[in-house]
Amino acid sequence: MSVTRTFNSSELAAYVQDGFFVVRGLFDRDEISKLLDFAQSDAAFAGSLYGRRDATGKETKLALWNHAGSDLYSMFARSPRIVDRMEQALGGEVYLYHMKMMLKEPHVGGAWEWHQDYGYWYNNGCLFPLLASSLIAVSAATKANGCLQVLRGSHHMGRIDHGKTGDQTGADLERVEAAMKTMELVYVECQPGDAIFFDSNLLHRSDANTSSDPRWSLICCYNARRNDPYKQSKHPQYSQLDKVDDSAIRTWNSAAEIAK
Questions:
Q1: Closest alpha carbon to 238 in 66, 63, 64, 6
Q2: Shortest CA distance to 223 belongs to which of 135, 129, 119?
Q3: Is the CB of residue 55 less than 8 Å from the CB of residue 165?
Q4: How far is CA 89 from CA 132, 246, 247, in A?
Q5: What is the pTM of this model?
Q6: pLDDT at 259
Q7: How far is CA 134 from CA 22, 166, 181, 260, in A?
Q8: pLDDT-derived band of residue 206, with 50, 70 and 90 as boundaries?
Q9: pLDDT > 60? residue 242
Q10: How far apart are CA 246 and CA 171, in angstroms?
């Protein structure tokens, strides 16, 4: 299987300018189907799910892991197709800050308010916004089922104040509304296997799922090694992230993993 592990120069320039870049078909249909089938049958995953309600009370479910291991989710988080691009985007060695599976179920999956990830992570002892995320579409993401929305170039604003909105922490709406008058709102619709790479200061949100189709995604978040937090928090300080071979997802075997 021929895969591209890095951004080319124009892709990296677009990421730096816009604060995000979408790599279409980063993972193929077989790889994503394997992840979806496994997650749907994974009792440990189902048992670790918890909810976050939006301002209207609708709930998005998620499960979060702070460290990469040898499970199938980690094969994606340790993939050089993601990690090498993150090292380009952040200018050096990175480690996994955390990863999470997010589920917006049909008709009931809630919205996420406007926010910057660094609006959360700043308080975890990260001195600089040298963090970024890759959202991998596990199912199709459309306007109807609550795909990611971004304000193009909003990461250039730097970190803005955040406060509580429902169970979530959202960005200062006065500043968001001002930004929306000058910056392009982009609905980032995706097919399974597409991956959105985005800066930790990019303003983003998503609507509730009003469709009959679920929206599942795996989000892998990374911090630069040189941005190692100065204090402990709910997300980890630096530990070496070992990349896997590009074939690791295809060759991963649940029975072999359980036997270890």
A1: 66
A2: 129
A3: yes
A4: 8, 20, 24
A5: 0.94
A6: 44
A7: 9, 25, 27, 29
A8: very high
A9: yes
A10: 37
pLDDT digits (tens, 9 = 90+) for 19-33: 999 999 999 999 999
What is the C-alpha to C-alpha distance for residues 145 and 260, in angstroms, rounded to an integer? 38
Q: How far is residue 232's CA from residue 238's CA, in Å, rounded to a whole number?
A: 11
Q: Give the model's confidence band at 169: pLDDT under 50 very low, under 70 low, under 90 confident, else very high.
A: confident
pLDDT classification of 57: cutoffs 50, 70, 90: confident
Cα dihedral 22, 100, 35, 151 in deg (nearest 10): -20
What distance in Å separates the CA atoms of residue 124 and residue 138, rounded to the nearest whole number? 29
Task: Say what the pLDDT of residue 167 is.
Answer: 64
For residue 250, give the amino acid letter.
R
- Give the integer Cα–Cα distance in Å for 108 and 258: 34
Displacement of CA 148 from its chain's centroid (Å): 10
What gap in Å lies between CA 249 and CA 68, rounded to an integer? 14
Report, at the CATH architecture level, how domain 17-227 is classified: Sandwich (2.60)
